Fold this protein.
Amino acid sequence: MQNKTTKNVLLSGASKGLGLCICGKLLKSGYRVYAISRTLSGHLRELGEAHKGRLFFKEVDLSDPIGAANAVFKGDFIPRAFPLDAFVSNAAQSYEDIVSNIDEAKLEGMFKVNVFSPMLLTKYAIRNMLLNRRPGSIVHISSICAHTGYKGLSMYAATKGAIESFSIGTAREWGRRGIRSNTVSPGFMEIGMATSLSDEDADKIRRRNSLKKAADPESVADTVAFLISDGASSITGQNVCVDCGSR
Amino acid sequence: MLKELLDIINSIRKNSGKQPLENISETTNLREDLGFDSFDLAELEVNIEDRFGIDVFEKDIPISVSDILKKLGR
């Protein structure tokens, strides 16, 4: 028997890095998490064992936006009448190069994962919230590079800029139905995609921020958990930089 | 079928503070007669899909109750 007061959250990119950290935080906070990712990692499996009955997983490939939306919302993973309280869009891929080397196929692939799939998943999350009359909350993970610019990350930053604009519009459009949308922009973290940076580049980025350190994934996850909580019921259309003061 | 649609429509009207309707007909215009805006229509869409399993707004937006009935094959 499910506890009806437990809130249901859809989380993308839950298997590793920041997504895994957010997943752990949400489970500890008492949420029921519907996690999607390309593969089920050992760490995510362990989280599921530690929080039995509150973590559900489905393998979903966000490089196919329509297939991904159908897999999540058109089957028995999140049926229409199953009330969704929040969608945390964390999954992303990074294609790094300087602008003069842009490869159209890689660019299109990254936009599918980072922009088109989150948009389509948002479409069906909102439809679910409308049907079930839930004042849901949507949080997209952006990146500080959408605001400051980094060499080699122009195309990646463009996907994050797109999703931040989309979130602002979503907030304006759906606020009348109690649905909120916000973005969180983490600074450089020593996990996930940032691990591909050289020590020298990572050090350079750290030296550029006020706190002279990497952003803590736990701090980012806490911010996400706050934004989907009732404590953030008056916050929408915002971007929160969790970046150690990078701007 | 009309009764089921009327129930959905009245549930949406109630949600936006409007009085319930006693009846609708095939010629009922969704915007002009029901006073529905884009957001009410979105709510109508997801409720019809939930009840009948068909997204009647998928290709174009129905204007009247008759358009919905046609898409539902009735």
Summary: The helical segments of chain A are 17-28, 42-50, 65-73, 104-131, 145-148, 154-174, 199-208, 217-227. The first strand of chain A starts at residue 8 and ends at 12. Residues 6 and 30 of chain A are 7 Å apart (CA to CA). The beta strands of chain A are 8-12, 32-37, 55-59, 86-89, 137-141, 180-186, 239-242.
